[in-house]
Amino acid sequence: MKRICVFAGSSAGNDPAFAKRTKELGKVFAEKQIELVYGGAQSGLMGVMADAILEKGGKVTGIMPTHLFQKEIAHPDVTTMIEVETMHERKAKMSELADGYIALPGGFGTFEELFETVSWAQIGLHEKPLALFNIEGYYTPLMNLINHAIEAGFVPEANRRLILESNQPNELVKMMKL
Questions:
Q1: CATH code of domain 3-175
Q2: GO cellular component terms (predicted)?
């Protein structure tokens, strides 16, 4: 696995642990020579992740739709910046380049990317690993909801394996079979 797509907030959130732990994951990427593929922003956890990798000499590919270049402020130091027209093109390009996915804490955009990716895995459009970096239990309520959906009969029990989860960067990367 050479490239991992990371979905993350364009905000850093209220808890300083989000940024601190994101930096730890970025350092693991750089140490293991994993290229980051992400939304291309300089702000929030997206920027924290990119900066942590770049500071250690790692590679970062940003993918950003033209209309977001001003709103999200494109990261000026990424190794490669790919400009696309639409959000659909952004997600398609990220998926094309990535060998797997990790979701960090984030908002609606992160949730949308996460659920689209797991839905694609569920219907067989890809077989790439997908993991949640569960910093400070951020994704615990979501995992509870997923378990509830399984118990209620809306998600097959076998599909629980589609989402890996850890709060430890090294373990998370190892779980993805690197």
A1: 3.40.50.450
A2: cytosol
- Tell me the pLDDT tens digit for each residue of 45-64: 999 999 999 999 999 999 99
Structure tokens at 10: 């364009």
User: With helix as H, strand as E and coil as C, how does 41-94 read?
Assistant: ECCHHHHHHHHHHHHCCCCEEEEEEHHHHHHHHECCCCCEEEEECCHHHHHHHH
> Among 172, 171, 170, 136, which Cα is nearest to 17's?
136
DSSP-assigned beta bridge partners for residue 114: none
Whole-model pTM over 0.90: yes
Backbone angles phi, psi at 113, to 5 degrees: -65, -45
Structure tokens at 20: 């601190």
Structure-block tokens of residue 157: 């029990």
Cα–Cα distance, 41 to 146 (Å, whole number): 29
In the beta sheet, which residues pair with residue 6?
Answer: 102
**d(C-alpha 8, C-alpha 17), whole Å:** 14
- Collapsing DSSP to helix, strand or coil, 124 comes out as coil
Best CA proximity match to 58, nearest among 31, 96, 91: 31
